[in-house]
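User: Could you go from structure to sequence for me? I need the amino acid at each position, not a summary. C-alpha cells:
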C-alpha cells in the first residue's frame, strides 16, 4: 500500500513539475533565437556582414529548423558572395546560400523569403555557369520568385528578381535561346515591358531601396526610354546610401547617366 502511494506521489510530481520545466526551456530557447536574430539584423544595418552571419549561425545552432533563421543565413551568404573576388570561393558562398534557402523551404514551404533567396542564390550560381546550365537554372529562378510573390504580394525583393528575369531572358543571346529551344522547347515568354512593370512594383513597395531604381533605369535604357531612365537615376542620386553596396550602385548610376545623356543629346 505504501509502495503504491509512493509511486502515485512520484507520478503526480512528474506531471506537475516536468511540463512547466520543459515549457520554460522552450521559451528560453525561443528568446535566445529571437535575440540572435535581432543582433544579426542590427549588424546588417551597420553593414557588418560577417558579424550578421555569426549571429544567425548562433541562432541556427539553437534551432536548426527555423525558417526565419534559414532565409537570413541564405541572405548573408549571398551578401558575402557579392563582395568575394575569388570565383571559386564566391560560387561556394552562393551554393551555401542556396542550401540554406532550400532547407528553409523544406521546413516551411509557405515561407516567401525562403523561396525568394532560393531564387537569389540560384540566380547567382547561374552567372558562373555555361549557356546550357544557365538556361536550366533560369527556369528554376522564375519558379522560385513567382512562388514568393504568390505567398507574399508585398515582397519587393521577389518583384525585383522577376523583373530582372524578364529583362535577362528577353535579351538572351542566340546561343542561349538555341539551348533553351533544344532542351526545354524554349523558355516562358519574357519582355522588357514586363521587366519594367515588375521593377516599378518593387520601387513602389520599397521606394528607398537604391538598387530597385537602378535596375529599373537599366531596363528603361534597354527599352530606349531615355527620360524614364533618367528619372530613376535621379532617384538613385537623391537617396542616401545605407546598404553596403549602395555606394557602388551610385557609381554605376553615374556612369549610366553619362551614357544616356549622350543618347539624348
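Assistant: Here is the amino acid at each position, in order:
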Amino acid at each position: 500500500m505504501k509502495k503504491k502511494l509512493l509511486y502515485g506521489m512520484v507520478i503526480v510530481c512528474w506531471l506537475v513539475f516536468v511540463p512547466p520545466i520543459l515549457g520554460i526551456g522552450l521559451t528560453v530557447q525561443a528568446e535566445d533565437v529571437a535575440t540572435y536574430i535581432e543582433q544579426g539584423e542590427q549588424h546588417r544595418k551597420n553593414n557588418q556582414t560577417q558579424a550578421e552571419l555569426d549571429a544567425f549561425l548562433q541562432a541556427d545552432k539553437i534551432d536548426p529548423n527555423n525558417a526565419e533563421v534559414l532565409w537570413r543565413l541564405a541572405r548573408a551568404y549571398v551578401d558575402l558572395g557579392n563582395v568575394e573576388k575569388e570565383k571559386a570561393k564566391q560560387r561556394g558562398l552562393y551554393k551555401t546560400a542556396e542550401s540554406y534557402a532550400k532547407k528553409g523551404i523544406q521546413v516551411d514551404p509557405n515561407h516567401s523569403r525562403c523561396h525568394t533567396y532560393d531564387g537569389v542564390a540560384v540566380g547567382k550560381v547561374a552567372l558562373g555557369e555555361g549557356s546550357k546550365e544557365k538556361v536550366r537554372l533560369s527556369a528554376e529562378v522564375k519558379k522560385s520568385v513567382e512562388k514568393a510573390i504568390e505567398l507574399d504580394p508585398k515582397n519587393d525583393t521577389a518583384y525585383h528578381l522577376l523583373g530582372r528575369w524578364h529583362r535577362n531572358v528577353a535579351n538572351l543571346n542566340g546561343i542561349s535561346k538555341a539551348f533553351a529551344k533544344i532542351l526545354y522547347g524554349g523558355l516562358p515568354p519574357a519582355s522588357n515591358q514586363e521587366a519594367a512593370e515588375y521593377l516599378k512594383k518593387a520601387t513602389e513597395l520599397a521606394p528607398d531601396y537604391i538598387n530597385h531604381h537602378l535596375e529599373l533605369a537599366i531596363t528603361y535604357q534597354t527599352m530606349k526610354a531615355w527620360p524614364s531612365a533618367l528619372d530613376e537615376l535621379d532617384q538613385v542620386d537623391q537617396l542616401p546610401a545605407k546598404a553596403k553596396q549602395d555606394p557602388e550602385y551610385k557609381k554605376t548610376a553615374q556612369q549610366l547617366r553619362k551614357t544616356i545623356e549622350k543618347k539624348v543629346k
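One structural detail worth keeping in mind: The radius of gyration is 24 Å.
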